[in-house]
Amino acid sequence: MANDLLKGKRGIIFGALNDMSIAWKVAERAVEEGATITLSNTPMAVRMGETNELAEKLNTIVIPADATSVSDIEEVYKQSMDHLGGKIDFVLHSIGMSPNVRKKRTYDDLDYGFLDKTLNISAISFHKMLQVAKKMDAINEWGSFLALSYIAAQRTLYGYNDMADAKALLESITRSFGYIYGREKNVRVNTISQSPTKTTAGSGVKGIEKLFDFSERMSPLGNATAAECADYCIMMFSDLTRKVTMQNLFHDGGFSSIGMSLRAMSQYEKSFDDEQDSPSYG
Ligand SMILES: NC(=O)c1ccc[n+]([C@@H]2O[C@H](COP(=O)([O-])OP(=O)(O)OC[C@H]3O[C@@H](n4cnc5c(N)ncnc54)[C@H](O)[C@@H]3O)[C@@H](O)[C@H]2O)c1
């Protein structure tokens, strides 16, 4: 349902690779809510992925950029302001990648060159987006920056590897830059900590299917989908949330606040009984 929540606003969406991407859903919803946007992704993703199809559908342009490159990011802001006809109101950072995860290096056997890349691509790129925007004075007053995080920043989850460190850094950058940007320019900076979601990046995490199922069962409202995440992003880009900044906002069906659920308790009791009954336990 469209409510013109972003009517007249200009935005940049980084990270739409295919129609499973969270950024893809956000781009579609933003346009539905009256925004004009540009899209950006790596030159390789633009060649191999479906970002161009989305741009065609939404009647906009794709600006290829590696989010670890300051000059590429400068170009994204420059071309976006030219194309959209003014300063930007909202930016989505929907970018994550870990070469250690890809190459199946475990957390106690990290390749440190890969770790540098994980942190640079998945977290420091957000600092670069913020710093470049501020220096270029590219953002309107009451503008809104969002990045996507995961609860592995606070809690240890098997298999999330060095992406946990990247998310902790991402959330810290959000607070530190959010303070300065808020104080000086009334621009807000937040992260949304999203449920496990079936996307290309998500499927790289070890045991993602079981993790997805676990949090689905543990969350009183179930996992949040990519489309629901897009709705939350729209609210955060809208004028309805102008005083929300420096926050990590959980969008996870309640998972982050659950210790023990009724369902988990029953399952626990069941497996305990099984163990007692098992002949191998004498
Ligand atoms: N899928 C999940 O379970 C889940 C849960 C919580 C948070 N998130 C976060 O959501 C965000 C979006 O991921 P997604 O799940 O939609 O997967 P996705 O694979 O669709 O999106 C990841 C994007 O990052 C882009 N990217 C990688 N390296 C880049 C670089 N150097 N410069 C610019 N872009 C680059 C990819 O091209 C891709 O478009 C990520 O930050 C991810 O960590 C995902």
Main structural class: alpha/beta
- Which residues sit in consecutive blocks of at least 5 with pLDDT less than 50? none
* Cofactors, ions, other ligands: nicotinamide-adenine-dinucleotide
Residue share in helices?
Answer: 40-55%
Summed up, the domain count is 1
Q: Main sheet, how many strands, which sense, barrel? A: 7 strands, parallel
- Tally the beta strands: 7
User: What gross morphology would you assign?
Assistant: globular
CATH domain fold name: Rossmann fold
Secondary-structure element order, as H and E? EHEHHEHEHHEHEHHEH
CATH class: Alpha Beta
Defining key terms:
single chain, 282 residues, alpha/beta, Rossmann fold, seven-stranded parallel beta sheet, 15% strand, binds nicotinamide-adenine-dinucleotide
What does this molecule look like?
The chain has 282 residues and is of the alpha/beta class. It has a single domain, classed as NAD(P)-binding Rossmann-like Domain (Rossmann fold). The chain is built from ten helices and seven strands. It has a seven-stranded parallel beta sheet, sandwiched between helices. Helix 7 links the parallel strand 5 and strand 6. The protein is globular. The chain binds nicotinamide-adenine-dinucleotide. The site of nicotinamide-adenine-dinucleotide has 26 residues, from helix 1 and strand 5.
